Amino acid sequence: MPQGLILGPLFFLIYINDLPTIINKDNNTVLFADDTSVITTDTNKDDFNLHTSMLFNDINTWFNNNLLNLNFSKTHYLEFRSVKHYNFIMHVQHNHNYI
Predict the structure, then answer these.
(1) From start to end of the chain, where are the E strands?
(2) What pLDDT is stored for residue 85 in this prediction?
(3) What is the pTM of this model?
(4) Minimal CA–CA distance to 51: which of 88, 80, 97, 90?
(5) What pLDDT digit, counting tens, does each position of 66-89 carry?
(6) Which residues of 66-86 are buried (b: 16+ CB within 10 A; e: fewer)?
(7) Are 38 and 48 within 8 A, CB to CB?
(8) Minimal CA–CA distance to 16: which of 88, 87, 55, 70?
(9) Would strands 93-94 and 28-32 be described as parallel, antiparallel, or unpaired?
(10) Cβ pair 97, 72 in contact under 8 A
(11) Average pLDDT in the 47-76 region?
(12) Tell me, what DSSP letter sits at residue 58?
């Protein structure tokens, strides 16, 4: 079995291991192999937009400091909401890049 199949994800996790430390403690970070997920919640849509924007600024700063780029074509946004908030239209963006 080629070593790259095992070592690639391991090296990636070691490299990205400190990313959760820069993310606000109100958010949950999930790192798995070469995939990172951030779970954020808020009951107020304006606060959610503000916190999401701040989150992407922090993540983008970390990426820049570690000589990485955030690939917006591979970045996805999934939203769950109650029936009460069903009619709100939300657009998540960072530096004019929509997710």
Answers:
(1) 28-32, 35-39, 93-94, 97-98
(2) 64
(3) 0.71
(4) 90
(5) 888 888 788 888 888 777 766 666
(6) eeeebeeeeeeeeeeeeeeee
(7) no
(8) 70
(9) unpaired
(10) yes
(11) 84
(12) H
